[in-house]
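TA notes, week 10

Several of you asked for a full example with nothing omitted. So below is the full record: structure tokens for the whole chain, then the designed sequence directly under it. When grading your own attempts, check the secondary structure regions first.
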């Protein structure tokens, strides 16, 4: 069957894809419905259930009254709900644009650590620059092959629960970049420009190069051609550049926005910055990092992918605003970093799985003997003001990196097959385990979230699955209580896992509460109203202070994702469940005396072992 893509709508001047049609049949191959606005009564009822485990009885009663007033017939909640339903009828997606603007583009935190997730993959089987460039050549070819499948409409449609998933984000991965602004950022998409970019940017030793990756006839360079060009770049960048321009992109967004405007006053700088922004993606050729023990290697590599290791390491080899950055180290380290305003974890996993499969294939096409133009080095004119900006950014980034504690480990006693064989959802099982681990460390449960993809809907992004439930609270309180029988604990565990699985299903169906509540709040602001009291309540502040930010990576690879906590006194826990093992990364900030990444990591490992012993005493 030959597939072609149908442009379904436009967004910010860029044509997006969300419908695939079988040519010759004239009928939709898969259609993606609009995202629903959940019923107001359902959301308010579920909100009260969500805050119940977090609040003492007197505060809960106060919140119940605030929710009752907000949701009463003819009240403010009903008016705002009607506004959202009208917005849904007249927009591509009633919440996604608002969410991207509110969660990402208006955030002023640095993208490094605070926003951009990184994925670290197992060490590759080379340990010198020759192997680095051979693999990097194949990687570039693999990414271009994935892009070609998108551009030609040959990318297979993905399904979840038997339903097709929206594909609109895939074309936006390439030739896109976040642009800093004084109050909020925006994302520039160049892939559908009249003359689509045909280059990538390669950065080595803090020096940026523009590398054309297509021949004049539009065909992509072969791996051999790419390799010869990377060798040329290496020969031009043997010395470390004195000024790491990429460090500027790691700054606080307001600070970087001001420096960005100063930088672009110079014509040479503007041309170089635009070349980076318009590039299909960025390849970071990193220098070797300090060797560490095998036990600490995965943590070191996750840090390397997340922030580059600091100003004396590879942080100058990054442009954190770029949507896609692949990192290939001279020591065999490999991974990627992505900017979330455009990209989402599931589509990054799809891209990565394709590229890794491509890299397994033998080289099939020899490089034609055609002379290629030299890769173009991108120059920057650095005046005293820009010099000061770079020095300030170096200090800020090193402080941030020193403050972040990262602990990665692999739990090897079992993987996702273990809960599956007991008829338990693997993701929900791990989420309940994380609740128990946090409770054991802090003697309380906290606001914690897991992301659910909304790609079953047109333009859908994500919503939160709230892990703390009454069932989870009852289970974690009972688990270490010797007066509760083993059978009682097993029953409570099953109830907690099933409660989380139910919330997961609701989220996937577009019926979670957090995006809806945010929409109601933003609708009030849109209408020029005061922020409703329900959102000024202590309970709402507590319920959205995410002390435990979690994320599951659905990948066929032994990769580990890593990101920073959402709040200063919180953790971020990411996990990748494989059939017989689970990869984890845990991060926390050293400046908070209450949190410790290693303590939580050890507790998670022990907790999983104890849950196995509970369910299988003979184990």
């Amino acid at each position: 069957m030959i597939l072609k893509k149908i442009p379904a709508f436009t967004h910010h001047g860029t044509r997006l894809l969300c419908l695939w049609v079988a040519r010759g049949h004239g009928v939709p191959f898969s259609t993606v419905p609009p995202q629903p606005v959940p019923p107001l009564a359902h959301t308010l009822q579920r909100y009260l259930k969500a805050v119940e485990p977090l609040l003492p009885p007197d505060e809960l009663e106060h919140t119940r009254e605030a929710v009752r007033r907000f949701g009463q017939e003819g009240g403010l909640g009903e008016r705002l709900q009607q506004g959202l339903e009208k917005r849904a009828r007249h927009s591509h997606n009633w919440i996604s644009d608002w969410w991207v603007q509110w969660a990402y583009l208006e955030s002023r935190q640095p993208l490094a650590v605070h926003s951009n997730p990184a994925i670290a993959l197992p060490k590759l089987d080379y340990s010198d620059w020759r192997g680095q460039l051979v693999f990097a050549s194949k990687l570039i070819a693999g990414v271009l092959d994935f892009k070609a499948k998108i551009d030609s409409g040959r990318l297979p449609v993905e399904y979840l629960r038997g339903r097709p998933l929206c594909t609109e984000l895939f074309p936006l991965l390439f030739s896109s970049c976040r642009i800093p602004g004084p109050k909020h950022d925006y994302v520039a998409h160049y892939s559908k420009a009249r003359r689509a970019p045909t280059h990538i940017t390669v950065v080595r030793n803090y020096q940026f190069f523009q590398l054309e990756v297509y021949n004049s006839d539009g065909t992509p360079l072969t791996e051999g051609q790419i390799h010869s060009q990377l060798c040329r770049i290496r020969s031009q960048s043997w010395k470390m550049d004195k000024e790491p321009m990429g460090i500027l992109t790691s700054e606080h967004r307001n600070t970087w926005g001001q420096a960005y405007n100063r930088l672009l006053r110079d014509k040479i700088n503007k041309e170089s910055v635009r070349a980076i922004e318009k590039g299909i993606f960025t390849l970071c050729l990193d220098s070797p990092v300090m060797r560490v023990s095998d036990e600490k290697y995965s943590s070191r590599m996750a840090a390397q992918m997340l922030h580059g290791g600091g100003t004396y390491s590879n942080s100058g080899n990054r442009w954190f605003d770029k949507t896609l950055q692949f990192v290939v180290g001279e020591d065999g380290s490999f991974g990627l970093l992505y900017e979330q305003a455009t990209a989402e974890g599931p589509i990054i996993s799809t891209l990565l799985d394709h590229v890794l499969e491509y890299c397994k294939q033998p080289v099939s096409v020899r490089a034609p003997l055609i002379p290629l133009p030299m890769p173009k080095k991108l120059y920057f004119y650095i005046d005293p003001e820009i010099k000061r900006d770079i020095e300030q950014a170096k200090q800020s980034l090193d402080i941030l990196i020193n403050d972040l504690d990262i602990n990665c480990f692999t739990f090897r006693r079992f993987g996702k097959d273990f809960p599956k064989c007991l008829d338990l959802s693997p993701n929900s099982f791990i989420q309940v385990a994380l609740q128990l681990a946090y409770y054991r460390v802090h003697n309380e449960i906290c606001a914690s979230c897991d992301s659910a993809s909304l790609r079953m809907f047109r333009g859908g992004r994500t919503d939160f699955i709230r892990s703390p439930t009454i069932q989870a609270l009852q289970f974690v309180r009972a688990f270490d209580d010797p007066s509760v029988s083993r059978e009682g604990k097993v029953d409570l565990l099953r109830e907690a896992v099933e409660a989380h699985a139910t919330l997961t299903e609701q989220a996937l169906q577009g019926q979670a509460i957090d995006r809806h509540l945010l929409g109601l709040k933003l609708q009030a602001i849109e209408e020029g109203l005061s922020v409703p009291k329900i959102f000024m309540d202590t309970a709402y502040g507590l319920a959205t202070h995410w002390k435990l930010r979690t994320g599951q990576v659905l990948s066929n690879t032994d990769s580990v994702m890593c990101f920073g906590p959402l709040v200063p006194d919180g953790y971020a826990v990411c996990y990748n469940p494989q059939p017989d093992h689970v990869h984890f990364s845990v991060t926390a900030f050293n400046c908070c005396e209450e949190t410790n990444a290693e303590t939580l990591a050890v507790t998670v490992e022990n907790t999983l072992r104890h849950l196995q012993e509970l369910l299988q005493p003979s184990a």
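The chain has a mean pLDDT of 92. Use that as a sanity check on your answer.
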